[in-house]
From TrEMBL, chain A:
Plasma membrane Na(+)/H(+) antiporter. Exchanges intracellular H(+) ions for extracellular Na(+) in 1:1 stoichiometry, playing a key role in salt and fluid absorption and pH homeostasis. Major apical Na(+)/H(+) exchanger in kidney and intestine playing an important role in renal and intestine Na(+) absorption and blood pressure regulation. It comes from the Eukaryota. Residues 57-457 form the Cation/H+ exchanger transmembrane domain. This is Sodium/hydrogen exchanger.
TrEMBL record, chain B:
Its main location: other. The keyword Cytoplasm applies. The keyword Cytoplasm applies. Belongs to the calcineurin regulatory subunit family. CHP subfamily. It is a lipid-anchor. PANTHER family: CALCINEURIN B HOMOLOGOUS PROTEIN 3. The lineage of its organism: Eukaryota, Metazoa, Chordata, Craniata, Vertebrata. This is Calcineurin B homologous protein 3.
Length: 940, 211
């Protein structure tokens, strides 16, 4: 009943009628008494427990919203402190209503439900390199530092107690040591909560945070040992017991770590095979890591170490294995759980404090505890740092030491441990509890409040959040290899030596076992950075397109200018603008970290600047950027003059053609191609009915032309020699034919349309497709073999569609890229996709491009090629070719198209910008089959 | 050749002054040098083959090359030396000394420049003072060659992307002809190399073996 009314009170707090509490408090009993069938019954007791829990979580979450209404407050006061204060207030209200503390943070709830998500989050997102790079320092602080803190605090308190200042306490040396051991440990939750808002440099952060995570083993052991000793009684403590204690430290810590690693291995292995159960994929991450926590708890090992190392060890493989959506899900869920748990912990710390039953005040004891933990922390840090600096490459300076000392926050772990004490054995439990609460509040609120100004005042080096740079990554990689080589040569086993050996081992064995094969290839940090940059670029390009589009609209109202129709300029349309609007919206919330959000905001602003700048460039003078593009392909290119541009354009095309040819001729490829062909066909058939409108083609890239890499995982397709022979050798010819056709069409090309659209409607078996190449007539003449090859089969639209697993698909630049990069008057590629009404899969692929040279009117338009007269049985008939007048449809994927056509020129994988794709298909797709989930990859 | 007896004290002093190593470190490096050179006075390229750990280094050739690069040996001429003596060996090693506490700004700057110069020379394989696109591509290709799944062409396009990024820092005009050392410095502006280009030379026995 008391709880009922307090819940009512809570509801009252939440701006509901206060009377509700009164009413509800009376109801359950009444209903129980009534007889006969009840249509509606009020079953409070039935739902009571989960109801209350959920309500508290709701309150805590709502509180968070309220705090963040005012940035001024959250900037100054750490959220943890605010939550504690809120907890105090709520606790006060509950107390006032009830006169009993019904809600406290119980150790069971804390250790089983609240702590694991926070620690898992920490482990899973641990910057591994940084962590292992500083592991030595972290371990020293965590082990020696914690033992030092525990011993000195306990002993000093006992020493002072002997002088009689504290009055009489019913406890001996062991009790003091026990208290020392639980109050000694720096708390990961508190440290994380405060340091996340401070943004000190990463080395400093990882040391303090790593210490707080790893000292758990020490704390657990010390705590258990002393608790045992207290139970045994001082007289029974022998040397053997002490030795046992020391041994148990190693068992507990190493055992916990081992359990974590084992489960990480298991988790990685499982995630390798979740390809077909994508929906529950994220679940494994949580379940297995939680299992590691429980297992080590069961074996009385360090559970925190277990789950931390589970997260640390599995992250590389799991992140590589699971799909992008799953990875996003994992990220969000983990962050949500962790920050929810953190919120609840701090609030309940506040609430728990409002309970006169636990308070025993002893000024001397409490004050001295505060003094001792601070002083000994400082002394410990200074001594250890002095030792460490003899061995560290990057010295920890005085300022760092100050922050490290000051950052020694105590938190809920200490509180939960002290609450676990048995009052019959530890007589002064209440004093210990109250002191712990005071210490926690003091460190979290006072130190948390002041650490930010302190950091600013001391001018501690902060993290600079730089954009990842390709050069930096490359040079960084070079350095890694150089350093390990130097260590090899100079014959030392140093940090680099070990890392190098480990990464060799990882690459040779671990990754092979734990990673999907498709993931193995794409897992390269440099490649990732490259992708991120590309994505960023693409996003900004879309935004720019929007801007430019409207400008173009003002400047050149219509298509009246037949000679110089700028196909690359989209018409301003609502679709378009909403596309980029959505894009921005979507780009936003990927990261939960405040700093990153800020960064994002900034980058959007930057983007806008760039956009403006670019617009100017586009219209005022010859854009520099275009030269850069040019540059990337042509070493020889420096001139700005038009003729040369053209010349280079030609040359590139020729080169391109050659490289294309050689690719196609490569024997190795033929098999692959064939395989892909089969696979695509097969999958196409399977999926043809569920593919939503407009999704496929927007993803297709011309790049696939090169077909450099294919999903090796997909090996079920048997090779069929017939196909092989058929396809082999014809591929090249095809291109030539394409060009020929292309140029034939050029002469008749319809210039009136923005895009020349060609539509294929294909039945299930036939791949509609494409291929387009923008070639200058001059060169296309040269090679003209007369076979025809249905390139659609090897250059599948579907390839990308199904290639989500195939993330390592590294294929490269194509003709369109050249086009995109070669001339300021960007010729553009257009893709269009649609599905016709009878749910047959149709791909409209439209391709139009235009090259306009300023002086000469050498405008060309290349339209889509239709594989006409195909003998191949798979593409039976070239479907009717018609001009798609559906302008609206055009715009639909305008963003995707443009991004693709321009930015693809240095992208190693085919475009996989799900945002763009998704957006591209937004207006049409309402029915999203489960498969299509796979499409929506997020790259960030 | 002549057999090594013992490192003469005078020579040791000199090395100490020039390279900033402690005499203990020099002794260890000297022992290693003798191990590598098989007690000869000089090391040739082939001697590096005896280090098994080096085998898997994707840029192994470039690193070994750097040891014989006269520019790194602080000789006026450029080109390649056939063999290097212990002093040269120390000189190369001294590029990787960690920063010392008592260095002032100017020293730090010089220190940094020297380290970057080493890297620059490694990239600039034709000794013309510029990193051309082709050279950069080669480096990137080698760097990424450790990953068997990565195609050459993607390495190329990464190099292209990196070059473009460089162009956005140094201006496109210079980059067309190649990145000069000044450009290279500009690219490194604001990037911390404290941890990246240092090796802790321990005063320990050499542990790694070679055959």
């Amino acid at each position: 009943m008391r709880q009922v009314s307090s819940v009512g009170l809570l509801l009252g707090l939440m701006a509901l009628p206060a009377a509700l509490g009164q009413r509800s408090s009376g109801s359950p009993t009444q209903h129980n008494r009534t007889e006969g069938y009840q249509i509606v019954s009020f079953e409070w007791e039935h739902v009571k427990d989960p109801y209350i829990i959920i309500l508290w979580i709701l309150v805590a979450s709502l509180a968070k919203i309220v705090f963040h209404l005012s940035h001024k407050v959250t900037r100054v006061v750490p959220e943890s402190a605010l939550l504690i204060v809120l907890g105090l207030i709520l606790g006060g209200i509950v107390w006032a209503a009830d006169h009993i503390a019904s809600f406290t943070l119980t150790p069971t709830v804390f250790f089983f439900y609240l702590l694991p998500p926070i620690v898992l989050d920490a482990g899973y997102f641990m910057p591994n390199r940084l962590f292992f790079g500083n592991l030595g320092s972290i371990l020293l602080y965590a082990v020696i530092g914690t033992v030092w803190n525990a011993a000195t605090t306990g002993l000093s308190l006992y020493g002072v107690y002997q002088t009689g200042i504290m009055g009489h306490l019913d406890s001996g040396l062991l009790d003091f040591l026990l208290f020392g051991s639980l109050i000694a440990a720096v708390d990961p939750v508190a440290v994380l909560a405060v340091f996340e808002e401070v943004h000190v440099n990463e080395v400093l952060f990882i040391i303090v945070f790593g210490e707080s995570l790893l000292n758990d083993a020490v704390t657990v052991v010390l705590y258990n040992v002393f608790k045992n000793f207290v139970e045994l009684g001082p007289e029974n403590v022998t040397g053997i017991e002490c030795v046992k204690g020391i041994v148990s430290f190693f068992v507990v810590s190493l055992g916990g770590t081992l359990v974590g690693i084992l489960f990480a291995f298991l988790l990685s292995l499982v995630s390798r095979f979740t390809k077909h159960v994508r929906i529950i994929e994220p679940g494994f991450v949580f379940i297995i890591s939680y299992l590691s926590y429980l297992t080590s708890e069961m074996l009385s090992l360090s559970a925190i170490l277990a789950i931390t190392f589970c997260g640390i060890c599995c992250q590389k493989y799991v992140k590589a294995n699971i799909s992008e959506q799953s990875s996003t899900t994992v990220r969000y869920t983990m962050k949500m759980l962790a920050s929810g748990a953190e919120t609840v912990i701090f609030m309940f710390l506040g609430i728990s404090a409002v309970n006169p039953a636990i308070w025993t005040w002893n000024t001397a004891f409490i004050l001295l505890t505060l003094v001792f933990i601070s002083v000994y922390r400082v002394i410990g840090v200074v001594i250890q740092t002095w030792i460490l600096n003899h061995y560290r490459m990057v010295q920890l300076e005085i300022i760092d030491q100050v922050v490290m000392s000051y950052g020694g926050l105590r938190g809920a772990v200490a509180f939960a441990l002290v609450a676990l004490l048995d009052k019959d054995i530890v007589k002064e439990k209440n004093l210990f509890v109250s002191t712990t609460i005071i210490v926690v509040f003091f460190t979290v609120i006072f130190q948390g409040l002041t650490i930010k100004p302190l950091v600013q005042w001391l001018k501690v080096k902060k993290t600079e959040h730089r954009e990842p740079k390709l050069n930096e990554k490359l040079h960084g990689r070079a350095f890694d290899h150089i350093l390990s080589a130097i260590e090899d040569i100079s014959g030392q086993i140093g940090h680099n030596y070990l890392r190098d050996k480990w990464s060799n081992f990882d690459r040779k064995f671990l990754s092979k076992v734990l990673m999907r094969r498709s993931a193995q290839k794409s897992r390269d940090r440099i490649l990732n950075v490259f992708h991120e940059l590309n994505l960023k670029d693409a996003i900004s390009y879309v935004a720019e397109g929007e801007r430019r589009g409207s400008l173009a609209f003002i400047r050149s109202p219509s298509t009246d200018n037949m000679v110089n129709v700028d196909f690359s300029t989209p018409r301003p349309s609502t679709v378009e603008s909403s596309v980029s609007y959505l894009l921005r919206e979507k780009a936003g919330p990927v990261c939960l970290d405040m700093q990153a959000l800020e960064q994002r905001r900034k980058s959007i602003r930057d983007t806008e600047d760039t956009v403006a700048h670019h617009t100017l460039q586009q219209y005022l003078y010859k854009p520099r950027q275009e030269h850069k593009h040019l540059y990337s392909r042509h070493e020889i290119m420096h001139s700005e003059d038009e003729k040369q541009d053209k010349e280079i354009f030609h040359r590139t095309m020729r080169k391109r053609l050659e490289s294309f040819k050689s690719t196609k001729l490569g024997i190795n490829h033929s098999k692959k191609l064939n395989k892909i062909h089969k696979r695509d066909r097969g999958q196409k058939r399977r999926n043809s009915n569920v593919i939503p409108n407009g999704k496929i083609p927007s993803e297709i890239s011309v790049q696939d032309f090169t077909l450099k890499e294919k999903d090796l995982e997909f090996s079920e397709a048997e090779e069929n020699n017939d196909y092989e022979t058929l396809h082999l050798g014809k591929g090249v010819d095809f291109l030539a034919d394409v060009t020929k056709q292309n140029f034939a069409e050029n002469s008749t090309g319809d210039m009136d349309h923005d895009v020349e659209m060609t539509e294929y409607s294909s039945s299930d078996d036939k791949l509609p497709s494409y291929a387009s190449d923008q070639l200058n007539q001059n060169q296309s003449v040269s090679e003209t073999p007369h076979h025809f090859f249905p390139s659609c089969l090897q250059m599948p639209w579907t390839h990308n569609y199904y290639s989500l697993e195939n993330r390592g698909n590294i294929s490269l630049s194509t003709v369109s890229e050249y086009i995109g990069s070669c001339d300021p008057s960007i010729p553009d590629l257009f893709w269009e996709a649609g599905t016709d009404s009878n749910n047959k899969e149709t791909v409209n692929s439209g391709y139009g491009s235009e090259v306009s040279y300023k002086s000469e009117n050498s405008q060309e338009e290349n339209s889509l090629l239709i594989p006409e007269g195909l003998e191949d049985s798979y593409v039976k008939e070239p479907q009717e070719k018609k001009i798609l007048l559906d302008v609206q449809g055009n715009y639909r994927s305008a963003a995707a198209r443009r991004v693709q056509s321009r930015r693809s020129f240095h992208r190693p994988k085919p475009l996989q910008h799900p945002k763009l794709q998704k957006l591209a298909s937004l207006p049409t797709s309402c029915h999203v089959p489960p498969h299509s989930l796979e499409q929506e990859e997020t790259q960030l | 050749g002549r057999q090594w007896q013992e490192l003469p004290p005078g020579k040791r002093k000199k090395g100490e002054r020039g390279s900033g190593f402690t005499s203990e470190q020099i002794e260890h490096l000297h022992r290693r040098f003798r191990q590598l050179s098989r007690d000869q006075l000089t090391i040739r390229k082939e001697n590096f083959d005896s280090i098994p750990d080096l085998e898997f280094n994707p840029i192994r050739a470039k690193i070994v090359h750097a040891f014989f690069d006269k520019r790194n040996l602080r000789q006026e001429s450029s080109g390649l030396a056939d063999e290097i003596n212990f002093e040269d060996f120390l000189t190369i090693m001294s590029y990787f000394r960690p920063i010392e506490m008592n260095m002032d700004e100017e020293q730090l700057d010089r220190f940094r420049k020297e380290k970057l110069k080493f890297l620059f020379h490694m990239y600039d394989s034709d000794h013309d003072g510029k990193i051309t696109l082709q050279e950069y591509r080669n480096v990137v290709e080698e760097l990424l060659s450790g990953n068997p799944h990565l195609e050459k062409e993607s390495a190329r396009s990464i190099a292209d992307g990196a070059m473009m990024e460089a162009a956005s820092i140094c201006g496109p005009d210079q980059v067309y002809e190649g990145i000069t050392f000044e450009d290279f410095l500009k690219m490194w502006q604001g990037i911390d190399i404290e941890t990246k280009m240092h090796v802790r030379f321990l005063n320990m026995e050499t542990i790694a073996h070679c055959y």
